[in-house]
Amino acid sequence: MSSSIEIKNNLKTGWESPSNIALVKYWGKHGRQLPNNASISFTLSQAATRTFVSLEKKTNPEEAIEVVFSFDGKPNNSFAAKIVKFLTSIADEYFPYLKDYKLNIESSNSFPHSSGIASSASSMSALACCLCDLENQIIGKTNDDKTFFKKASIISRLGSGSAARSVFAQAAVWGKHTDLSESSDEYAIGVDTSLHPVFKTMQNDILIISADEKSVSSTAGHALMEGNPYAPVRYEQANHSLSKLLIALKEGDLETFGKITEDEALTLHALMMCSDPSYILMEEGSLAVIKKIKKFREKYNIPVYFTLDAGPNIHVLYPEKYDKEVSQFIIAELKPYCHQGRIIRDKVGNGPSKIS
Ligand code: PMV
Q: Rounded to an integer, what distance in angstroms lies between the CA atom of residue 346 and that of residue 32?
């Protein structure tokens, strides 16, 4: 047995955790999944993963970590192998109990399968919350939310960097930044209390321009920053962007928010375009949609902005009070560019929740 704690049986838990969309992007890392610059994101609500983990006592606890994994009700051995690798890398340091049990993990996404939406942030954060919860059950610990989600953020980060930000409501910053004394490279911190009300209900419609697999994995993308001649300037720019954005988010300054958010998205794509090898991650439809959003904003003076992840899909951000006008515009002018007309209507959300 890996600890002196009594091995309990029939332990289980379930958590739902959302994806997030970065406003200042994390792109470039070092060490054990540590960011080269601080980033900030909105936590989403609709794009989420539900994960259930149950533990079964092992007959021989000294053996390797054992996982049975199913996605959408179907066994998935290649995911199971990835999860075993991840759990093996964190067990000794963070969860010695993992060696005492066989883990049965069932996971599903609330958003359509193969929609081109990255699910690593929601899936890793849902798994991290389950692991922290089971640890508490095993050692009979009830820790406060702050301690619980700090550890959940560290574990999420080790699984997928950007996932560190998903465990907090509304908005989170990950990475050490001089303007936030509590910030850290090892975990994210929630910054919801520093948000103007207009951002607490911000809409985020995700236009699925292409549902294809990403042409470059984020692991490879981060690695390409190492040889990128603009990298040092980029990290400096990200730190300035975050300083300015924190003020705009507090003051409800939509114009500055939009300017920084769009600059950041275009910078991420520009960095990929000038990497070696280079990647163009937008599609023709992405560009057409970006141009239309800019025109609409100028013509009607409505604060609607775009951002993108490392792919072609467009996130359309706007205050809730413009829902009617912007929805009409999206349906009439942007939907034709979406793969099978697919749009996920999302908004700023409240972070992970335990499924009872
Ligand atoms: O968490 P990763 O390693 O998949 O990196 C994702 C990075 C971006 O999504 C492109 C930006 C971000 O900060 O979320």
A: 32
| Any atom of ligand 1 within 6 Å of the Cβ of 293 | no
Question: Could you tell me the distance, in angstroms and rounded to a whole number, from the CA of residue 59 to the centre of ligand 1?
Answer: 39
Query: Which atom of ligand 1 approaches the CA of 25 most closely?
Result: 13
CA of 95 to the centre of ligand 1 (A): 25
C-alpha–C-alpha distance, residues 12 and 105, integer Å: 10
Contacts of 21 (CB under 8 A, 6+ apart): 41, 42, 44, 204, 307, 309, 315
Domain count, the chain: 2
Q: Look at residues 92, 171, 169, 79 and name the one whose alpha carbon lies nearest to residue 127.
A: 79
Instruction: Find the 309 Cα to ligand 1 centroid distance in Å.
Output: 7
Asked whether residue 1 is assigned to any structural domain, the reply reads no
Asked if 182 and 286 sit in the same domain, the reply is: no
- Does 212 lie in the same domain as 268? yes
Q: Are residues 175 and 234 in the same domain?
A: no
Cα 55 to the chain's mean position, in Å?
Answer: 26
Does 115 fall in a domain?
Answer: yes
Whether residues 229 and 278 fall in one domain: yes
Q: Identify which of 19, 24, 27, 165 to mutate to test ligand 1's pocket (most ligand atoms within 8 A of the CB).
A: 27
175 shares a domain with 52: yes
* Domain edge (last residue) among 160, 193, 226: 193
Whether residue 26 has its Cβ less than 6 Å from ligand 1: yes
> What string of pLDDT tens digits covers the 356 residues of the chain?
444 456 666 799 999 999 999 999 999 999 999 999 999 999 999 999 999 999 999 888 778 999 999 999 999 999 999 999 999 999 999 999 999 999 999 999 998 666 667 689 999 999 999 999 999 999 888 878 999 999 999 999 999 999 999 999 999 999 999 999 999 999 999 999 999 999 999 999 999 999 887 778 888 999 999 999 999 999 999 999 999 999 999 999 999 999 999 999 999 999 999 999 999 999 999 999 999 999 999 999 999 999 999 999 999 999 999 999 999 999 999 999 999 999 999 999 999 999 98
